[in-house]
Design a protein that fits this description.
The protein is mainly beta. The chain is 5% helix and 47% strand. Strands 2, 4, 5, 6, 9, 10 and 11 form a seven-stranded mixed sheet that branches. A four-stranded antiparallel sheet has the order 1-3-8-7, with no helix packed on it. A hairpin with a 6-residue loop joins β4 and β5 (46-51). It is globular, with a radius of gyration of 13 Å. The N and C termini lie far apart (39 Å).
């Protein structure tokens, strides 16, 4: 399994931007599709975005389309989530995840085996 550590969260006003980073361990990073999820206390985890192992295909939740961009740098074992025009409803703990099949990240998150601990994003109005 790949080990994941997120960073880049913080407090931002509505309309602001943040870029989250996810650092992955090991030399098999390019074997994994990657995704971002978010969760507020007492609520279910929500799918946010995913990217395939090559960085050639991306998927987004409807709520973030046009505002968020997922990308990866396989040479640096990094995945990013650029978040623009943040809104209070974007508040939550953002975690990155890895799986060998991108469809698992998009459709079966309960089957994902590699998760980071997350980084908090708080958007104020």
């Amino acid at each position: 399994q790949v080990q994941l550590v997120e960073s880049g969260g913080g407090l931002v006003q509505a309309g602001g931007s943040l870029r989250l980073s996810c650092a992955a361990s090991g030399r098999t990073f390019s074997d994994y599709a990657m995704g971002w999820f978010r969760q507020a206390p007492g609520k279910e985890r929500q799918f946010v975005a995913a990217v395939n192992r090559f960085g050639t295909h991306t998927w987004y939740a409807d709520s973030v389309k046009g505002r968020f961009t997922i990308s990866r740098d396989n040479d640096k074992n990094m995945v990013y989530l650029q978040m623009n025009n943040l809104q209070p409803e974007d508040t939550g703990r953002y975690s990155c995840a890895a799986d060998s099949v991108s469809a698992t990240i998009r459709d079966r998150p309960m089957a994902i085996k590699s998760w980071g601990l997350g980084t908090q994003v708080t958007v104020s109005s």
